[in-house]
Amino acid sequence: MKIAIVGAGAMGQLFGAHLIATGQTVTMIDSSEMVCEGINRDGIKVRTGSQEFHVNATAATAQDSDDVVDVIMVFTKGPHTRSAVASIQHLITDETVGVSLQNGLGNEELLVEVFGADRTIIGMTDFPSQRAEDGVIYSEPTGHVVVGGLRGGAHIKAQLIARILDESGMNASFDPNVMIPIWEKVIFNAVYNMVSGATGLTVGGVYDVPEARDLATAILNESLKVVEHEGIAIDEERIRENIVHAHQNHADHKTSMLVDIESGRPTEVETIGGAIERAGKRIGTPTPTLSAVCNLIRIQERNR
């Protein structure tokens, strides 16, 4: 199967390397010529726990890619989804499937515009992925992937994607109710990313600093009310357990929102906190604390 990974950051490289290692034909696509040159020269090295492997890989910018593919997996951050998908339309046929495992909500709407609802697969992953200074992609073996279709016609395709990812070692499964794990991750990210981005605190600081903990608790409660009124049967206890686990095991971690703010890059505020905020407005469920924290991040983005 021919697969294009759009967005060759740490997460894209993690998935690309696993797929290549199991025999899939993968092209890494990125807007940075420097990133592409590095992948073509050095390949991709992944270290997961105590295990390490290396694969040779092919990378190119979208304009330098001309081979149509069976599957396009988008790993860009939310602010870049529209431009990323637009850049690779010449690689898409009437049979090409689009897959988004991106953070947040709303990325799938942009894929539907290009692939249609029957060829759009959505999902979530909680695999961590970080590119170190030595170029190695670091991850952990405890993550998993869940995928599903937007409607019945896409479920068979989603099951195929789940099987391919699972065979590549990504602990993947198909879930016809995939919006449940997606919303659970969005709420988890809203708690940590929003507060971290607004305050400059690490994951540990979000719950160690009383004022930040109050913000996080309010955002959690507001988000739970929104998803309840949306009629999505999330597992509240699982979200709370994941929040506690992150605090206990990743206290020194800087969230991606904070890293983006410090680096002066666009954040995913609109696909994480902003998406919950908009859902709340649509169904008449206010999110005053979340909205205020989102605005603080928006102000920081504009100032930078």
Automatic annotation (TrEMBL):
Domain Ketopantoate reductase C-terminal positions: 179-299
Keyword Oxidoreductase: yes
Catalytic activity: (R)-pantoate + NADP(+) = 2-dehydropantoate + NADPH + H(+)
Domain of life of the source: Bacteria
Location of the Ketopantoate reductase N-terminal domain: 3-150
Zinc as UniProt keyword: no
Pathway: Cofactor biosynthesis; (R)-pantothenate biosynthesis; (R)-pantoate from 3-methyl-2-oxobutanoate: step 2/2
Enzyme Commission number: 1.1.1.169
PANTHER family: 2-DEHYDROPANTOATE 2-REDUCTASE, PROBABLE 2-DEHYDROPANTOATE 2-REDUCTASE
Database matches in NCBIfam families: apbA_panE
Protein name (record): 2-dehydropantoate 2-reductase
The organism of origin for this protein: Yaniella flava
